[in-house]
Design goal:
Layout lengths: L1 H19 E3 L2 H10 L5 H10 L5 E10 L2 E9 L5 E7 L5 E6 L2
Antiparallel strand pairs: 1-2, 2-3, 3-4, 4-5
Length: 101
């Protein structure tokens, strides 16, 4: 019986984790910016690009991770190296700056 309870608990945690991570729909972003919930995505993108001068953004998305908005930016630098830069969308803090492998 304990094994069955543990399995149900683990399944519930997995389902809950999937609900807590979500892409923010494009039509909601303007409202988040106006409310001051997130900084201007253009400003955040410039912060990401400043980490790798001469780079271009190849993709980006705003995600809500457990109530924290994270802007995930993929860059390609002048040497054709790809980078993943994650920023806290409220504070602008760089959370991750890692070469994409």
């Amino acid at each position: 019986m304990k094994t069955l309870t543990a399995l149900f608990t683990a399944a519930a945690l997995v389902v809950g984790a999937n609900v807590a991570l979500a892409d923010v729909p494009a039509h909601e972003i303007s409202g988040l910016e106006k409310a001051g919930t997130v900084q201007s995505l253009q400003k955040l993108a410039e912060t990401a690009k400043a980490k790798h001068p001469g780079s271009t953004i190849t993709d980006s998305e705003l995600e809500n991770e457990y109530g924290r908005y994270i802007l995930k930016v993929e860059l390609r630098d002048a040497q054709n190296v790809e980078w993943d830069v994650d920023l806290d969308a409220k504070t602008g803090e760089v959370l991750k700056d890692k070469q994409d492998t």
